[in-house]
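Blinded run. Sample ID left blank on purpose so nobody reads anything into the name before looking at the predicted structure. Input follows.
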Amino acid sequence: MSAPTHTPTAPEPTDATALGLQLALVRPVLRTAAARVWRDDDGLTGRYRHYLRAMHQVIRASVPLLERAADRCGERTGDPVAAPLAAYLRAHAEEERGHDDWLLSDAEAAGWPPGELTGSTPPPAVAALVGAQHYWIEYAHPVALLGYVTVLEGNAPAPGLAGMLARRTGLPPAAFETVRLHADLDGGHSADLARLLGTLPLDAAQRSLVAVSALHTVTALAELFDRIAEAPTVQETPHE
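Blinded prediction complete.
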């Protein structure tokens, strides 16, 4: 009699792997929208100006979002997810602190008034992107923010984009420092987040919330990029 054969079963995917598979299905939508922003034509410099303003409106909310989510974790006694999630959120808030100021420096280097970034009313696309996270943090679970962070960190500017934009627009390289720095930093941040998702004891509802948050973030961010891609050219301010 021959020995019984054993067919090995595939290992269960981690939460990070499962989320990555879901996002892979929709990521082309985001990449297409971003490509429209960076297309090489006469409107690129104006679109970059709109991009700086929109990204400042998004990024200035990052640290407050992370800190609020960590505070909400502290209120969830008996929740095994809360303590490790709060530790990650507070550490990541320190990593993100001051990044909105980088954008102000980029605008100044380009010869544009930084007040354009701080004084304009955020459009509905920004409110939809960021505001959904506030709602889920307050009324669902702060773990929702991991879906948002996964998308933002996992879709960092491509290496070399900053140099390409400087060449195409004629603006000084210092006007693209945020693009360059995020291309360098966000890969490491994504790895940290993947490790966290692999260790958090998420239940089914929490896994679903992270996925819903991530998919919403893809949709809202693509809408914001589409808005930038279609924005009218801003009247240029002469360089000093």
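Unblinding after everyone has recorded impressions. Residues 204-230 form the longest helix (27 residues).
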